[in-house]
Amino acid sequence: MLSLLSALANGNEFSILKVSERIDKWLWAVRIYKTRSDAADACRTNKVLVNDGYCKPSRELKVGDVVSVKRMPVTYSFRVVGLVSSRQPAKNVPEYAENITPQSELDKLSVPHETIFVSRDRGTGRPTKKERRDIESLMDGFFYDGDDAEL
């Protein structure tokens, strides 16, 4: 492990303060990703940014860095408050990460999804040929089939 360690002597006790921590380990420890390999894959596929720059899983993270995580449709932002290498209980996460995601990003979660569902009464059976054509003509406005277009 290449992270820098500094030891402070308090009488007979020694406490270790980490100066930096791997980004994949920190993302896993503060419960942003369920497994460390998921966190490493997200770093490799450019879904994680540190201070607005892409990073590798081995990138050293310091206190004060801003970590952005792209999880469709929202890009979450966290400020590193503390460094930790072991997975923490959910109630301890605010000691290590501060959620600074803008409200405009969080509003993307509550946008209603448009779905097309044709309701049929139970027991009416299959649609007739006329009903099927009516349904298909209704769907033509929502879906585009590229076969009709000429280049």
Give a verbal description of the structure.
- This protein is α+β, with helices and mostly antiparallel strands and 151 residues long.
- The chain has a domain at 20-101: Structural Genomics Hypothetical 15.5 Kd Protein In mrcA-pckA Intergenic Region, Chain A, CATH 3.10.290.10.
- It contains 4 helices and 9 strands.
- The protein is elongated and about 75 Å long.
- The model is unreliable at 1-15 (pLDDT under 50).
* C-alpha-based Rg, rounded: 25 Å
As residue ranges, the low-confidence spans are 1-15
Largest beta sheet: strand ordering: 5-4-7-8-9
Assigned CATH architecture of the domain at 20-101? Roll
CATH C-level class of the domain at 20-101 is Alpha Beta
Q: Any idea what the shape is?
A: elongated
Strand residue percentage: 15-25%
Outline the secondary-structure elements.
Elements lengths: L4 E6 L2 E6 L2 E2 H7 L6 H9 L3 E3 L2 E2 L5 E2 L4 E6 L2 E7 L16 E3 L3 H4 L22 H12 L11
Antiparallel strand pairs: 1-2, 3-6, 4-5, 4-7, 7-8, 8-9
Helix pairs in contact: 1-2
